[in-house]
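Hypothesis: this fold can be encoded by more than one sequence.
Test: take the structure tokens below, design a sequence, compare later.
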């Protein structure tokens, strides 16, 4: 039994190391592709972090300035529409409500 558990833990550890390596490589590629404004962004973030306890609005710098065109309300309406169109497997609404509640929580954060 101990041997099985040890082999399982070693396999999980090795998989975790591989995932860390892959994640680090992906992050480095993304970081390298960032525009020249990256240094400015980092400075703004550091300043906001320093001010956050006395001035929470300083964290507004973290909000995305990219307009995607779809508001949270639009996304939620689309999810409900698609969910109601499924019809084949009738959902009692809990799965959709759970997903939408998660979106609301994320939006509030």
């Amino acid at each position: 039994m101990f041997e099985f558990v040890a082999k399982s833990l070693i396999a999980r550890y090795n998989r975790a190391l591989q995932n860390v390596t892959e994640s680090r490589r992906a992050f480095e590629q993304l970081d390298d592709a960032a525009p020249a404004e990256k240094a400015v962004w980092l400075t703004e973030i550091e300043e906001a972090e320093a001010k956050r306890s006395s001035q929470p609005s300083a964290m507004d710098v973290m909000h995305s300035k990219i307009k995607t065109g779809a508001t949270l309300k639009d996304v939620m309406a689309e999810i409900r529409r698609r969910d109601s169109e499924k019809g084949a497997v009738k959902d009692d609404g809990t799965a959709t409500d759970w997903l939408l509640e998660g979106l609301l929580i994320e939006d509030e954060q």
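The chain has four helices and no strands. The CA atoms of residues 42 and 74 lie 31 Å apart.
Hypothesis status: open.
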